[in-house]
Structures are given as C-alpha cells and as structure tokens.
Write a structure and sequence with these properties.
This protein has helices at 47-55, 97-107, 112-125, 141-153, 171-187, 199-205, 223-228, 233-238, and strands at residues 9-18, 21-31, 36-40, 62-67, 70-71, 82-85, 159-163, 192-196, 208-213, 216-221, 243-253, 256-261, 264-269, 276-282, 287-290, 299-308, 313-319, 322-328, 340-345, 350-353. The protein has 355 residues and is of the alpha+beta class. Helix 2 (97-107) crosses helix 3, helix 2 (97-107) packs parallel to helix 4 and helix 3 crosses helix 4 (141-153). The longest helix has 17 residues, at 171-187. It is globular, with a radius of gyration of 24 Å. Bound molecules: adenosine-5'-triphosphate and magnesium ion.
C-alpha cells in the first residue's frame, strides 16, 4: 500500500531507562517487512516501551533503531513513517468517524476532499461503510476499534503498531477483530508490531513472537517453535500453561533421552540436556485421566478440582509430582473431586526444558 512498501524494523542492543528503572534492557530483534510480530509478556516487562521506541514516542538511552534499513534512532515521531493504534483508541470525541480518519492526511497537507476519499476507502476496508457520519460515542467498542485501525491505515505507514488493541472488547468480538487485523495485515502486506499479554492471541495472529520478561527477550520464534520447544521455564509456563515437573534424565540416547518422572519412564527429545536432574514441561493436554487402572504405564492421583467448560473439562489433579493442571477434551461427564484416578502421559506434549 505504501509507496515505499512495508519496511523492516531492527533493534540493535536497545536500552531504555527512566531514572533508576530499566524498561528495555539491551534488546535486539528484527521484524521482517510484511510480517506480524508480537511482543508478548507479563505486565511491566517493557512491551509498550518497545512499541513507543519504534514509533519515536520515546528515545533510546543507548543502542540503535533502524526502519527500512535507515537509522532512525534520533528521529522524532513525525519524522518516522509509523502509525500506532492505542489501547484506548484515542479517537477525537467531537469529530465524526470520517473526520477522525481524514484528520491525519489533512494535517499532512492533503486537500480536504482527497483526504475524505482516502478516509472512506479505509473505512470500507475495515467494514465501516455507512457509519462515517456518526460520532465515536454512537459506535460499539469493536466499531471504535476499527475506526482507530482505519485512522492508522490511512497514513499508509511503513510500519503499523498495535498496543493491546483488543483489551476493551468482549471475548467473542476479540476473536473476530483479531482475525480481521491479521487478514488486513496479510492482504495489504503490512509490517506490524503487535503488543499483547494474552498468549492465545499471540499464537493466533503472529508470524513470530518475541517473548519478553523483565525488560529482556526471553525467546523469539514462530508460535509453533515457542509452544513445542520452549527454551526456558518462563516461556514454557507463559505459553500454553505448562505444568513444570521435576524429573531425572536416566540415559542419553543420541538426540533422545530416557526420562523418569513420578515412577514413569518416557523417551523424549533430549534438547541438549544431560544425565541428572531436569525439568519437564507437561502440557495440560498431555495428561490422560483414567477412572480404572489402564494397561499402559500410569501413576495414581486424585481429582482436586473439576470445572466443566462445555468443549472441555479442566482439572486440578493431586499427584506425587504435585498438583497438575489437566484439560480433558474427550469426556463429557466430569470426574468428581475426591475421586482416585490414574494418569498416563502423551509423549508428544511432554518437553524437556534445556538447562
Ligand atoms: N514514563 C515512565 N517513567 C518511569 N517508568 C516507566 C515509564 N513508562 C514505563 N515505565 C516503567 O517501565 C517498565 C515497563 O513498562 P511498559 O509500559 O513498557 O510495560 P508493559 O510491558 O507495556 O506492561 P503492561 O502489560 O502492564 O502494559 C515498568 O516497570 C514501568 O513502570
Ligand atoms: Mg503496556
């Protein structure tokens, strides 16, 4: 869409300090042109600060930032070809929808009629045709969100930034708008940096995810890489709600390893671990609950909590490995708390965490 096309974003050893607080600590990454990369992490880990550094709304304390291969480290926000969609949408309440969207191009010097045409085109793109003369207060949360997207798109930026764009929406709308943003990004071949603290949202929309923890990058990868090959306990826990379990690596078998946990033995990808104590990430889906002792190897346990959620049942199960969080998608009838059960494990969803 942009005359220059989508641009890459590159951070090289970027640090941002606010007095004694280091909000971003020696962070390096590249966002390839035309991809959607998510910054994912818990509250306070530095996601918004990273976005604001890309936008030029904050200046780096040290390190360099490049957009489209050009060093923009010392350029102000208005000198960078970047737009941001804020969590609060930040629409002008006294302007109509179309005035909100046409505002940016008008300020940039485009004649009013052309700015309105451009704005209408973008409103159509986000599915808001016919609503252009309403005021923001006459729109639903999801519609306001789309106005904010149209307002960012109309500037045809080389990079588009989203800061928790779905946090004001209910669960159903969140999924729809999330899919819309992803579709728009792919159809228009946009470079997008997207911030969320919701791991499911990140897995759903991203080409790549940058997981942040305490102002640093914990791991970068595709959704699948992060889910299937977490590099640390933090990432295993944050993405996919893994149970973290103590285990012992009994025998190294090339790139496989024999591991023992809770009296069970499993052969798993070794992932560089060596004989001795290890940690395993056990996905909630990996655990199968049996009401009677199964033929396959299993351990004894007791149902502590059960929650029926329609499509699946969530359990907390007390075992000698500690409490395990388990999701059962097969059964319809929950097992009552207090029931003695047996647990077996699907190797596919049990992962050794590298030391
Ligand atoms: N203007 C500021 N002055 C001082 N400290 C700040 C400022 N902005 C952010 N911080 C601090 O920097 C750290 C990172 O903040 P940031 O807003 O980037 O986190 P975040 O990952 O976006 O969190 P959230 O998910 O809660 O939005 C926090 O400890 C925060 O208190
Ligand atoms: Mg934030």
């Amino acid at each position: 869409m942009n005359k220059r096309g989508p641009a890459s974003v590159e951070f090289r050893s970027v640090t941002k300090r606010y007095g004694a607080v280091t909000a971003v600590d020696d962070v390096s990454f590249t966002i390839e042109p035309g991809t959607l990369v998510t910054l994912l992490g818990p509250s306070g880990c530095g996601k918004t600060t990273t976005l604001r550094l890309i936008a030029g709304l904050e200046m780096a304390t040290s390190g360099t930032i490049a957009i489209g291969g050009h060093d923009v480290t010392n350029l102000s926000a208005s000198e960078r070809d970047v737009s941001m969609v804020f969590q609060s949408y930040a629409l002008f309440p006294h302007m109509s929808v179309i005035e909100n969207v046409a505002y940016g191009p008008t300020v940039q010097g485009l004649p009013k009629r052309q700015a309105r045409e451009l704005a209408l085109e973008k409103l159509e793109l986000v599915g808001l045709q016919g609503l252009e003369n309403r005021s923001p207060s006459e729109l639903s949360g999801g519609q306001q969100q789309r106005v904010a997207v149209a307002r960012a798109l109309v500037l045809e930026p080389q990079v588009l930034l989203f800061d928790e764009p779905l946090s004001n929406l209910d669960a159903k709308l969140r999924r729809r708008v999330r899919d819309d943003i992803r579709e728009l990004q792919q159809n228009l071949n946009l470079t997008v940096a997207y911030v969320t603290h919701d791991q499911e949202e990140a897995l759903a929309v991203s080409d790549r995810i940058i997981v942040m923890s305490n102002a640093r990058i914990a791991q970068t990868g595709t959704p699948r890489e992060l889910y299937e090959e977490p590099a640390s306990l933090f990432v295993a826990d944050f993405i996919g709600d893994a149970n973290l379990v103590d285990a012992e690596l009994l025998e190294e078998r090339g790139d496989r390893a024999l591991a023992r946990f809770g009296q069970l033995e499993l052969e798993l990808p070794r992932r560089g671990a060596v004989s001795g104590s290890i940690k395993l990430a056990v996905r909630p889906d990996a655990v199968m609950i049996h009401r009677t002792r199964p033929a396959r190897a299993a351990i004894e346990a007791r149902i502590a909590k059960a929650a029926y959620l329609g499509k699946h049942i969530e359990y907390t199960v007390a075992s000698r490995m500690g409490d395990l969080f388990v999701i059962d998608r097969a059964e319809r009838q929950p097992v009552s708390p207090g029931t003695e059960v047996w647990l077996s494990f699907a190797e596919r969803d049990v992962t050794i965490i590298p030391a």
